[in-house]
């Protein structure tokens, strides 16, 4: 049985199950072994056999001897890159190509190995694939029938780096595909060319720095991966920890893994069937994290004199009670022989005094709070009050004091402790965009943070100041960046209470060019050592709470990054429409229409498709089923590229973004329908042709199909002549604008015309190429 308790597996399992960081699988030939696909060694042997068949006759003694010698050298060379280099030269292009294809074509009819299907069940951002067999792509088609998969080869990586921001998954066939010989990477020259390509290196570095990689189906002495790993080790950059599933236990594997920052997850393969690989995946897929509670908190003070009897302490001034109890709690927390139970016993013994500790005033001289001087109350919420205060050194701070009843409610108290621990983690890592944490106490339950000058997001939106797409996208993408950063920390901090009142716009009124988005109140957040209990309860739930925070569904946990996906989705809904969502509104049949109406309230941008794309982002983030929501990196990536498109349309490199924008700017004023599975927009012009515009990310092209079908009511004689003339006219329009027409079909009752254009041409001549589509569609209107 697979050992599920090894530390490296536990760490990776938490990342994958919590969805706190996007995962990419890097796959080697071992995954394809069950399908009996020839290994690289097997391909070498097949090429050697082909070389033997091409041995010159005895009449050409010199050439014969040279051929035999080179064939022998290729057969015995330990470096397969060199062996393939030799074989490609002596076989010739045609024999070399056909021999490899013949051996690999068996993959087309072979059953897809189970491991590939299990990879897609993990919902990875993509696969870096070293195999030419196509199993990774076929497995995606089985798991997601009808959905488009972005695919490209290793030598095309430079022009596809933008897909790392796309919410759609990809397969990067690093060593090529069977069908495209120009993409193959088998020889020494080919691997050197690939690894020296700056665009490729940037793509791989971006994957390593922004995602968590799991290496599968390869070993340390696997020649196909060895050159990649050697290249990575020379970069000299700390990309964080990645993981390698292997059955190898030798020291060389350990040495290589440590050198390049990869943690080994080991399994046994005594049977030779690698059955524990499936167990590895199944353990992750069924896993629900179980964690510990956070410790009590207190503000250390020098007042550590003996405590009087409970009744005597209760009669002292409130702040003296606070100072004394915090001093003793702090002492207990650092005493090795004491436990958290000792803290609970102390609080129970002095229960009346603890109750008195909640007496708080902003009126001097009773406005002291454990060394802070309260100036005014600046906020009040469901869980407590917020005060502006002054430190002994004269600094302004904000102090949030939770209601007294929290101390008698264990799950709420644990939530407070969890939040304090999370804020400490964020402050220790100096995460930009969160309010620096200073101190916290449980007598009373309070947290001290830096004071932030500026409105919260709710105030800014309701005042009408967030009134354009640039502001909407800047605020939304900044929120996403902050939360993604917190998720990516080793402790994997989640927020779990994202809402407009927990987001501040620091300096929004006073610093128009340099204001900042700041996220508050990680009080409901969860991190690696947190308990599976939320402060939020059904009675206090609202539209920003994910469904699983109120009622638990099968296989769902509140300790998931998908909770924050829901919160940010609803927050963006509020930013656009200015209305708070109602709890469970995402289940209403008119939810899609409500989202679109909210997005339509923002004045039009030069990028016309923004309202539709943001509406789909909100809907994808607020799915009722946790497993169906977008991850935070998907949300952040989409927001970033939409903001870039809105600011500079010429910077867009995505074929599907361009395709939808063409549809949004159609001259017929007809509403288009977007198909997220095929990445295409369709528009039906009354009495005319149906136009479909597709973004082909793999080929980096926008493809257009215009179809007209007779309704049966037209005059057949006129129709026959019109069809030919109309098709010729439409083709001419496309050609003059720069489109390449690739296919035309015409019969007595219908006509279809297909055209395409490279995205670089579209970026350069967007208006001209876009106008041609609608002119061609109009030409095909009978």
Structural descriptors:
Rossmann fold, Ser/Thr_Kinases-Pseudokinases, Phosphorylase Kinase, domain 1, 782 residues, alpha/beta, six-stranded antiparallel sheet, 27 helices, single chain, 5 domains
Topology, element by element:
Elements: H1 7-18, E1 23-27, H2 40-53, H3 61-76, H4 80-91, H5 93-104, H6 114-121, E2 126-129, H7 135-143, E3 150-153, E4 170-173, H8 188-196, H9 198-210, E5 212-216, H10 223-233, E6 242-246, H11 251-259, E7 262-266, H12 275-285, H13 310-314, H14 318-334, H15 340-349, H16 351-356, E8 368-369, E9 372-380, E10 384-390, E11 396-402, H17 410-428, E12 437-442, E13 445-450, H18 457-462, H19 469-488, E14 503-506, E15 516-519, H20 561-577, H21 591-599, H22 610-621, H23 632-647, H24 655-664, E16 673-675, E17 680-684, E18 690-696, E19 701-709, H25 716-737, E20 740-746, E21 750-758, H26 759-764, H27 766-779
Parallel strand pairs: 1-2, 1-5, 2-4, 3-4, 5-6, 6-7
Antiparallel strand pairs: 8-9, 9-10, 10-11, 11-13, 12-13, 14-15, 16-17, 17-18, 18-19, 19-21, 20-21
Total discrete domains: 5
Supply Rg. Answer: 32 Å
Q: Which second-level CATH architecture of the largest domain applies?
A: 3-Layer(aba) Sandwich
Q: What is the number of helical segments per DSSP (H or I, 4+ residues)?
A: 27
The main pleated sheet reads as: 7 strands, parallel
Contiguous low-pLDDT stretches (5 residues minimum) are 525-541
Helix content: 40-55%
